[in-house]
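REVIEWER CHECKLIST
Item 1: Sequence provided? yes
Item 2: Single chain? yes
Item 3: Sequence as submitted:
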Amino acid sequence: MIRRLTPADLPLAAEVIRASFATVAREFGITERNCPRHTSFITIEELQQHFDKGYMMYGLYEGNKMVGYVSLKRESDGAFELNNLAVLPEYRHQGYGRQLVDFCKAKVKELGGSKITIGIIEESTVLKDWYAANRFVHTGTQEFVHLPFIVGFMEWYAGK
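Item 4: Structure as written out by the authors:
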Protein backbone atom coordinates (compact mmCIF):
# COMPACT_ATOMS: atom_id res chain seq x y z
CA MET A 1 0.00 0.00 0.00
CA ILE A 2 1.24 3.50 -0.86
CA ARG A 3 -0.12 6.49 1.01
CA ARG A 4 0.54 10.20 1.24
CA LEU A 5 2.61 11.16 4.27
CA THR A 6 1.92 13.79 6.92
CA PRO A 7 4.44 15.66 9.07
CA ALA A 8 3.98 13.00 11.76
CA ASP A 9 5.40 10.41 9.32
CA LEU A 10 8.59 12.33 8.58
CA PRO A 11 10.83 10.82 11.32
CA LEU A 12 10.13 7.31 10.02
CA ALA A 13 10.53 8.46 6.41
CA ALA A 14 13.95 9.93 7.27
CA GLU A 15 15.01 6.58 8.74
CA VAL A 16 13.90 4.72 5.60
CA ILE A 17 15.70 7.20 3.33
CA ARG A 18 18.94 7.15 5.34
CA ALA A 19 19.00 3.34 5.54
CA SER A 20 18.31 3.02 1.82
CA PHE A 21 20.84 5.60 0.67
CA ALA A 22 23.53 4.35 3.10
CA THR A 23 24.23 1.50 0.66
CA VAL A 24 24.80 4.06 -2.10
CA ALA A 25 27.08 6.12 0.13
CA ARG A 26 29.18 3.04 0.94
CA GLU A 27 29.38 1.97 -2.70
CA PHE A 28 30.58 5.37 -3.91
CA GLY A 29 32.68 6.43 -0.91
CA ILE A 30 30.33 9.22 0.12
CA THR A 31 30.84 10.50 3.66
CA GLU A 32 29.52 13.37 5.74
CA ARG A 33 32.91 14.98 5.23
CA ASN A 34 33.04 14.85 1.41
CA CYS A 35 29.28 15.26 0.81
CA PRO A 36 27.39 16.39 3.93
CA ARG A 37 24.17 17.08 2.00
CA HIS A 38 23.94 13.59 0.49
CA THR A 39 20.57 11.93 0.89
CA SER A 40 22.07 9.27 3.18
CA PHE A 41 22.43 11.98 5.83
CA ILE A 42 18.99 13.61 5.40
CA THR A 43 17.45 15.05 8.54
CA ILE A 44 13.87 15.32 9.70
CA GLU A 45 14.25 19.10 9.45
CA GLU A 46 15.24 18.85 5.78
CA LEU A 47 12.24 16.65 5.07
CA GLN A 48 10.01 19.13 6.89
CA GLN A 49 11.40 21.92 4.69
CA HIS A 50 10.58 19.84 1.60
CA PHE A 51 7.09 19.19 2.95
CA ASP A 52 6.61 22.92 3.58
CA LYS A 53 7.73 23.66 -0.01
CA GLY A 54 4.99 21.43 -1.37
CA TYR A 55 6.79 18.17 -2.02
CA MET A 56 4.20 15.39 -2.22
CA MET A 57 5.61 12.61 -0.04
CA TYR A 58 4.54 8.98 -0.15
CA GLY A 59 5.35 5.93 1.92
CA LEU A 60 5.12 2.35 0.72
CA TYR A 61 3.99 -0.03 3.43
CA GLU A 62 4.17 -3.75 3.89
CA GLY A 63 1.61 -4.25 6.62
CA ASN A 64 2.25 -1.47 9.13
CA LYS A 65 5.94 -1.12 8.25
CA MET A 66 7.17 1.65 5.94
CA VAL A 67 9.58 -0.07 3.56
CA GLY A 68 9.78 2.56 0.82
CA TYR A 69 9.56 6.29 0.20
CA VAL A 70 9.35 8.69 -2.71
CA SER A 71 8.47 12.33 -3.24
CA LEU A 72 7.31 14.41 -6.18
CA LYS A 73 7.78 18.14 -6.60
CA ARG A 74 5.85 20.09 -9.21
CA GLU A 75 8.23 22.08 -11.37
CA SER A 76 7.12 24.05 -14.44
CA ASP A 77 5.49 23.27 -17.76
CA GLY A 78 3.98 19.99 -16.58
CA ALA A 79 7.25 18.63 -15.17
CA PHE A 80 7.54 16.90 -11.82
CA GLU A 81 10.82 16.09 -10.11
CA LEU A 82 11.05 12.65 -8.49
CA ASN A 83 13.16 12.71 -5.33
CA ASN A 84 14.62 10.24 -2.87
CA LEU A 85 13.14 7.01 -4.20
CA ALA A 86 14.10 4.66 -1.39
CA VAL A 87 13.47 1.02 -0.57
CA LEU A 88 14.97 -0.54 2.54
CA PRO A 89 17.82 -2.86 1.51
CA GLU A 90 16.18 -5.97 2.94
CA TYR A 91 13.04 -5.30 0.83
CA ARG A 92 14.79 -4.73 -2.51
CA HIS A 93 14.30 -6.95 -5.56
CA GLN A 94 10.65 -7.55 -4.68
CA GLY A 95 9.12 -4.98 -7.05
CA TYR A 96 8.66 -2.18 -4.51
CA GLY A 97 10.79 0.32 -6.43
CA ARG A 98 8.79 -0.32 -9.58
CA GLN A 99 5.55 0.09 -7.59
CA LEU A 100 6.75 3.49 -6.40
CA VAL A 101 7.79 4.59 -9.90
CA ASP A 102 4.53 3.37 -11.43
CA PHE A 103 2.61 5.16 -8.68
CA CYS A 104 4.48 8.39 -9.45
CA LYS A 105 3.80 8.05 -13.18
CA ALA A 106 0.08 7.61 -12.51
CA LYS A 107 0.07 10.54 -10.04
CA VAL A 108 1.81 12.84 -12.53
CA LYS A 109 -0.74 11.92 -15.22
CA GLU A 110 -3.58 12.44 -12.72
CA LEU A 111 -2.21 15.92 -11.95
CA GLY A 112 -1.97 16.80 -15.64
CA GLY A 113 1.80 16.48 -15.80
CA SER A 114 3.75 15.57 -18.90
CA LYS A 115 7.08 14.32 -17.54
CA ILE A 116 9.12 13.25 -14.54
CA THR A 117 12.73 14.32 -14.10
CA ILE A 118 15.34 12.68 -11.88
CA GLY A 119 18.97 13.16 -10.95
CA ILE A 120 21.17 10.17 -10.13
CA ILE A 121 24.81 9.36 -9.58
CA GLU A 122 25.95 9.01 -13.19
CA GLU A 123 28.46 6.28 -12.34
CA SER A 124 25.67 4.08 -10.93
CA THR A 125 25.11 2.03 -14.08
CA VAL A 126 22.83 -0.40 -12.24
CA LEU A 127 20.50 2.44 -11.23
CA LYS A 128 20.71 4.10 -14.64
CA ASP A 129 19.83 0.82 -16.32
CA TRP A 130 16.96 0.26 -13.86
CA TYR A 131 15.44 3.65 -14.66
CA ALA A 132 15.95 3.03 -18.39
CA ALA A 133 14.04 -0.25 -18.00
CA ASN A 134 11.27 1.87 -16.42
CA ARG A 135 11.14 4.04 -19.59
CA PHE A 136 13.33 6.92 -18.39
CA VAL A 137 15.62 8.47 -20.99
CA HIS A 138 19.09 9.77 -20.17
CA THR A 139 19.23 13.50 -20.98
CA GLY A 140 22.68 14.60 -19.84
CA THR A 141 25.15 15.07 -17.02
CA GLN A 142 26.51 17.88 -14.90
CA GLU A 143 29.39 18.27 -12.50
CA PHE A 144 28.81 20.23 -9.30
CA VAL A 145 31.81 21.45 -7.32
CA HIS A 146 30.21 20.49 -4.01
CA LEU A 147 29.56 16.87 -5.05
CA PRO A 148 32.15 14.07 -5.31
CA PHE A 149 30.31 12.50 -8.26
CA ILE A 150 28.78 13.50 -11.59
CA VAL A 151 25.01 13.90 -11.65
CA GLY A 152 23.16 12.18 -14.47
CA PHE A 153 19.72 13.41 -15.52
CA MET A 154 16.90 11.25 -16.82
CA GLU A 155 13.30 11.93 -17.82
CA TRP A 156 10.11 9.95 -18.29
CA TYR A 157 7.51 11.34 -20.66
CA ALA A 158 3.78 10.74 -20.12
CA GLY A 159 2.05 9.13 -23.04
CA LYS A 160 5.14 7.35 -24.28
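Item 5: Key structural point noted by reviewer: The mean pLDDT is 94.
Item 6: Recommendation: ____
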